[in-house]
Write a structure and sequence with these properties.
The chain is elongated and about 130 Å long. The strands form nine sheets. Strands 7, 8, 9, 11, 12, 13, 15 and 16 form an eight-stranded antiparallel beta sheet that branches. Strands 2-3-1-4-5-6 form a six-stranded mixed beta sheet, with helices on both faces. It folds into five domains: 5-168, P-loop containing nucleotide triphosphate hydrolases (Rossmann fold), CATH 3.40.50.300; 181-262, Beta Barrel (Elongation Factor Tu (Ef-tu), domain 3); 269-369, Beta Barrel (Elongation Factor Tu (Ef-tu), domain 3), CATH 2.40.30.10; 370-439, Arc Repressor Mutant, subunit A, CATH 1.10.10.10; 576-633, Winged helix-like DNA-binding domain superfamily/Winged helix DNA-binding domain (Arc Repressor Mutant, subunit A). It contains 19 helices and 35 strands. By secondary structure, the chain is of the alpha+beta class.
């Protein structure tokens, strides 16, 4: 049995609250001022049992023009509207405005009730009905049931209940598998229980004991209890009026406009990509960057309207736009919104959110407009691909895609599987799947190969580029796992070669030609001729003045080739020299059993400047093991240093 919310709409003093009381037995005017003035000021709530036993929520909205913002806050969760028109007055200004708001919010089902029929005769009533039908022509209420009603004698109540039951069956099923969202419309405290918030559950489910976030403030609380239509329950679901008792949060920290959601599933935003409909009744064109009041969920936020592809909008026209918000909002793609002018305050239009995480764009660029058009009217596969492209190398999770596409979860997962299979999307497995545009993944692989190749051209004497340096060029904001995956795939395909922290192309070989070839020979001669007492690296730099960079590169190459051996940070030896010394040293060790610095001096004729680094070098290369001031020849049973 589907859950849904019925809401009222109509001009002030046309009998909306009296109608709700007749239907439900509940007086929704709860404020003292409402009782004294006899008009509804704020939202009122009740529930109703339909003839088939179904229980539905009822939202009663104020009709006075001063309280339209409260009306919009309540209308956001309505699935079926009762448009109330007094038979003695007919269509009035707020009748028109409320109907426009309902249309902008995507309400598509409803009933028209002519109230106060006891105040007029039959002839007048027929005239009013014809006038109302003319007014509704071309709207979503064209052809809707028209019920005569009197709160004085109850006339029409049975017909209204029957009509509600019939039209309720036509309302689309609400997806309860999505992200839980409850825009807060009331906050209060109950002694002994603490803070309670109420609202219409827009999507998903909430269970007692769940941890929730109150956004955009980011407050975390625990669900202590849930009430649906005055009854304690363990779970609330989409389409229900819900009261939530929160543990661990003060009442003053929450206000109308906040959103209750499961922790980590939603985030706030200040830039929305939208399609905007400018109402036909406006008296002038809408200029780019107009300041307006955004109504979405139960919040009201000042927003700047940035028109895409144009500088102004004529009444009755629609346009793609960005809304730049002065305060953060908590929304999803496909959410409906209403815009009201800054001053004087009146409803000017509304529309649909295409992407709640809009980015800065070139508003007069044809590609920008084409992307907005895909998000607005493209098939779901294409919409997903646009969001993947926008996520770029950071990628996007399934939860984030739910928020940014508004596609129901089951269908989204099916589409993602299909896109991944066709190569149009790339899925990176892990604790949480992350998706990337297939075109981006292909381009990223080629970009890595190009960067490495370019690095070889600029640094021919270096074996390759360091991984972290490569990642910095590719983009530090990218998902680290994606970068590693790209390297893995490229190496598997033989397009790159990984050596420890370096990346190179398989065909890259360090070669020294021309002047560098001559320098190579000079350095080899220098180290060969200097024997066991080579110059320090600083002395080598001095010997080849103004060639420090080249010397460093050539020495690195000679090390890679095995022709130079690094003994310490300052000392390098020709390979032949060090190998001859190693053989002589090993023979001495076998002969004497243990060798000290003095013995090493007798063997080499060197000073302490060379003796200590050389003896430590042979320790590190596993020829010797230290025992106090002496060295012993390392053997399988002799592996522990004694320092």
């Amino acid at each position: 049995m589907r859950d849904l919310i019925v809401g009222t709409a109509g001009h002030v003093d046309h009998g909306k609250t009296a109608l709700v009381k007749a239907l439900t037995g509940i007086d929704t005017d709860r404020l003292k001022e409402e009782k004294e003035r006899g008009i509804t000021i704020d939202l009122g709530f009740a529930f109703l049992n339909l003839p088939d036993g179904r229980r539905v929520g009822v939202v009663d909205v104020p009709g006075h023009e001063r309280f339209v913002k409260n009306m919009v806050a309540g209308a956001g969760g309505i699935h079926l509207v009762i448009l109330v028109i007094a038979a003695d007055e007919g269509v009035m200004p707020q009748t028109r405005e409320h109907l426009a708001i309902c249309s902008l919010l995507g309400i598509r089902k409803g009933i028209v009730v002519l109230t106060k029929v006891d105040l007029v005769d039959e002839a007048w009533l027929k005239l009013v009905e014809e006038d109302v039908k003319d007014f509704l022509r071309g709207t979503f209420l064209e052809g809707a049931p028209v019920i005569y009603f009197s709160a004085l004698d109850g006339r029409g109540l049975t017909d209204l209940l029957a009509a509600l039951s019939r039209v309720a069956d036509e309302v689309d099923e609400i997806d309860v598998s999505g992200i839980f969202r409850l825009p807060v419309d009331r906050v209060f405290t109950i002694r002994g229980f603490g803070t309670v918030v109420t609202g219409t559950t827009l999507s998903g489910r909430l269970t007692v004991g769940d941890e929730v976030s109150i956004l955009p403030k980011g407050i975390v609380a625990k669900v202590r209890g849930i009430e649906v239509y005055k009854k304690q329950v363990t779970e609330a679901r989409a389409g229900q009026r819900t009261a939530v008792n929160l543990q661990g949060v003060e009442r003053d920290l929450i206000e109308r406009g906040d959103v209750l959601t499961h922790r980590g599933e939603l985030a706030s935003t200040k830039r929305l990509d939208v399609v905007f409909q400018y109402l036909s009744g406006m008296g002038s064109k809408l200029k780019n960057r107009t300041l307006a009041r955004l109504h979405v969920g139960t919040s009201e936020i000042m927003a700047r309207i940035i028109l895409i592809g144009r500088d102004e909008l004529a009444p009755g026209q629609s346009s793609y736009a960005q809304l730049l918000l002065e305060e953060p909002a908590v929304v999803m793609a496909q959410d409906r919104f209403v815009l009201r002018s800054y001053s004087p305050i009146t409803t000017i239009g509304g529309g649909v959110i295409l992407d709640p995480e809009g980015r800065q764009v070139k508003r007069l660029h044809s590609e920008t407009e084409a992307q907005f058009a895909t998000l607005a009217t493209g098939e779901e596969r294409k919409r997903i691909k646009v969001i993947l492209e926008r996520a770029h190398i950071a990628g996007i999770t399934e939860k984030q895609l739910l928020v940014r596409t508004g596609i129901p979860k089951a269908r989204l997962l099916t589409l993602l599987s299909s896109l991944s299979s066709s190569g149009e999307a790339y899925c990176l497995e892990g604790e949480e799947r992350r998706y990337f545009a297939g075109t981006l993944y292909t381009a990223l692989r080629q970009r890595v190969v190009d960067i490495v190749g370019n690095y070889h051209r600029n640094h021919p004497l270096k074996e390759g580029i360091k991984k972290e340096e490569l990642r910095g060029i590719v983009g530090q904001r990218g998902e680290a796992r994606l970068f590693q995956r790209v390297l893995f795939d490229l190496e598997r395909e033989g397009r790159i070669h990984l050596e420890q922290d370096f990346v190179r192309l398989p065909e890259h070989r360090v070669t020294l030609g021309g002047d560098l070839g001559h320098l190579r020979e000079k350095l080899l001669d220098l180290y060969r001729e200097s024997g066991l007492a080579p110059p320090t690296i600083k002395e080598v730099f001095g010997h080849f003045e103004n060639q420090r960079k080249e010397v460093e590169s050539v020495i690195t190459v000679l090390q890679k080739e095995g022709l130079l051996v690094k003994v310490s940070s300052e000392l390098f030896y020709h390979f032949n020299i060090i190998e001859k010394l190693k053989a002589d040293y090993e023979e001495l060790l076998r002969k004497k059993g243990r060798v000290g610095p003095g013995d090493f001096r007798e063997l080499t004729g060197l000073s302490r400047k060379f003796i200590i680094p050389l003896m430590e070098y042979f320790d590190t290369t596993k020829l010797t093991i230290r025992a106090g001031e002496y060295r012993l020849l390392r053997s399988p049973g002799n592996t522990k240093d004694d320092k």
